[in-house]
Amino acid sequence: MSVESDYFLKMDASPYIGEWIAIHGEEVVAHSRSLKEVHREVKSKYNVSSVLFVPILGEETYIL
Amino acid sequence: MAITFRYQMINGKGVSLKRPMINVTFSNGSEVFKTMALLDSGADMSAISSDIAEIIGIDTDGERTTIHGVAGKVESIQKKVNVSFGNEHERYSFNIPVKVVFTDESDSASFIPLLGRDGFFNQFKITFDEANLKFSLKKNND
């Protein structure tokens, strides 16, 4: 696991439901419904290999 | 040795959802994408959205096929991608077949990357400990 994934496991993700978030260290550094937009924003500021991108699924039950 | 993970929980607003997700890196050459992926024993194959595929430079041209899920059907194309995961003691890296699922850009967060049976589950003994909110993966032939 990484600092970013550990942070994700303990953070309150509910404000971001339906969006992609980008986590660097212990901080959400970008969020949007568009992954490409989040990725573009992050790429201009960070090394993307050190950033965790996570889709925040809704509170609904998922049957995949 | 087995790697044990905790279920991912969505916290807040009284919501208590738990999902078996792991931190993975999808890559294609030098392009990498770190994300959380859901272990899905009901998925015949792993799957990623088309925007992830484009970010890591996978060519999404070609003949599309329809794949079916409980909620309906979507268009996809089959490709291969490198996936790696692990912890400080063990790390695994594989080239696996994936279905690249074509999603609407504004709704792609509703599609989480899936790790399915062909190419992923068949490499591990996977144990879900629902009562204790843990799951573990042990590489076959270890």
Give a verbal description of the structure.
Chain A has 2 helices and 3 strands, in the order αββαβ. Chain A is α+β, with helices and mostly antiparallel strands and 64 residues long. A 3-stranded antiparallel sheet of chain A has the order 2-1-3. Chain B is mainly beta. Chain B is built from 1 helix and 12 strands; from the N terminus they run E-E-E-E-E-E-H-E-E-E-E-E-E. In chain B, the strands form 3 sheets. In chain B, strands 4, 5, 6, 7, 8, 9 and 10 form a 7-stranded mixed sheet that branches. Chain B has a 3-stranded antiparallel sheet with strand order 1-12-11, with no helix packed on it. The longest helix of chain B is centred in the middle third of the chain and has 6 residues, at 50-55. Chain A binds chain B through residues 1-2, 4-5, 8-15, 18-20, 33-36, 39, 48-49, 51-59, 62-64, and chain B through 5-6, 8-13, 15, 17, 19, 23, 25, 32-36, 38, 40, 42-43, 49, 51-52, 54-55, 69-71, 87, 105-112, 114.
Could you write a compact summary of the structure shown?
Chain A is α+β, with helices and mostly antiparallel strands and 64 residues long. Chain A has 2 helices and 3 strands; from the N terminus they run αββαβ. In chain A, 27% of the residues lie in helices and 23% in strands.
Annotation keywords:
heterodimer; A: 64 residues; alpha+beta; 3-stranded antiparallel β-sheet; 3 strands; B: 142 residues; mainly beta; 4% helix
> Could you describe the largest sheet of chain B, including whether it forms a barrel?
7 strands, mixed
Strand order of the largest sheet of chain A: 2-1-3
Shape of chain B: globular
Total helix count of chain B?
1
Content-based structural category of chain B: mainly beta
| Biggest beta sheet attributes of chain A | 3 strands, antiparallel
